[in-house]
């Protein structure tokens, strides 16, 4: 029997359903407790720098080509993995406040987002999905780590921002 090719290999964009099926999404009750990492990194690639970048020892990988797994209970949502991931595949999502979500994402384009600024929210495939507000910006290794407040229903959709000015 020929095994089915995952659709993200054909499209280059992974879906929420695929992430869930692969066990890469935290359970709802963990998301409600506070910020937690989501590593959208399903391929067996020779990279493991997120493992040593994590101060909590929350990322597990037995071999360098394994898919990284987050121990949701150990993760403190610091965002170090977001800053360090060369594939821009690491995010932090926080659903602890009713009606709102906070998505922390990497940003490597100019202009630099400012705290308090309204930005356009983009999906994994670059579609505009709404507006959000920047609440925090910090930098490591020339990658900006940006936290945006977004409508709760977009928590699993928003994975980039567009600063239009
Ligand atoms: S957000 Fe911080 S604690 Fe959580 S997996 Fe990433 S580096 Fe580790
Ligand atoms: S650093 Fe990024 S690309 Fe490398 S294993 Fe971790 S999540 Fe995947």
Compile the SSE list and pairings.
Layout: H1 7-11, H2 16-21, H3 28-33, E1 36-39, H4 49-53, E2 59-60, E3 69-70, H5 80-84, E4 90-94, E5 100-107, E6 118-122, E7 128-140, E8 143-151, E9 160-162
Antiparallel strand pairs: 1-4, 2-3, 4-5, 5-8, 6-7, 6-9, 7-8
Bound molecules: iron/sulfur cluster (2 copies).
Residues 39, 41, 47-50, 68, 85-87, 89-90 line the site of one iron/sulfur cluster.
Would you give an account of this structure?
The protein is an alpha+beta fold and 165 residues long. The chain is 16% helix and 31% strand. The protein is built from five helices and nine strands; from the N terminus they run H-H-H-E-H-E-E-H-E-E-E-E-E-E. It has a seven-stranded antiparallel β-sheet. It has a two-stranded antiparallel sheet with strand order 2-3. Strand 4 and strand 5 form a beta hairpin. The model has no long low-confidence stretch (mean pLDDT 96). The protein binds iron/sulfur cluster (2 copies). One iron/sulfur cluster is lined by residues 37, 53-54, 56, 58-59, 70, 75-81, 92.
Short description:
By secondary structure, this protein is an alpha+beta fold.
Please name the defining characteristics of this protein.
165 residues; alpha+beta; two-stranded antiparallel ribbon; binds iron/sulfur cluster
What is the count of helical runs? Answer: 5
- Secondary structure: helix percent: 10-25%
Radius of gyration: 15 Å
Strand content: 25-35%
The string of secondary-structure elements, in order, is HHHEHEEHEEEEEE
Low-pLDDT residue intervals, each spanning 5 or more residues: none
Q: Average pLDDT value? A: 96
Q: In order across it, which strands form the biggest sheet?
A: 1-4-5-8-7-6-9
Q: Biggest sheet: strands, sense, closure?
A: 7 strands, antiparallel
Q: How many strands?
A: 9
Q: Note the gap between the termini.
A: 53 Å
């Amino acid at each position: 029997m020929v095994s089915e090719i995952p659709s993200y290999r054909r499209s280059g964009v992974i879906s929420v359903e695929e992430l869930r099926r692969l066990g890469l999404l935290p359970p709802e009750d963990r998301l409600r407790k506070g910020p937690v990492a989501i590593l959208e990194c399903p391929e067996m690639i020779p990279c493991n720098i997120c493992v040593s970048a994590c101060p909590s020892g929350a990322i597990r990988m037995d071999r360098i080509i394994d898919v990284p797994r987050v121990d949701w209970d150990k993760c403190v949502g610091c965002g170090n993995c977001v800053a360090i991931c060369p594939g821009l595949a690491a995010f932090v999502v926080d659903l602890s406040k009713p009606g709102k979500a906070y998505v922390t994402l990497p940003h490597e384009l100019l202009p630099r987002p400012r705290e308090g600024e309204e930005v356009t929210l983009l999906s994994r495939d670059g579609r505009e999905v709404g507006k959000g507000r920047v609440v925090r910006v910090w930098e490591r290794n020339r990658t900006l780590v940006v936290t945006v407040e977004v409508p709760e229903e977009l928590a699993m959709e928003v994975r980039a921002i567009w600063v239009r000015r």
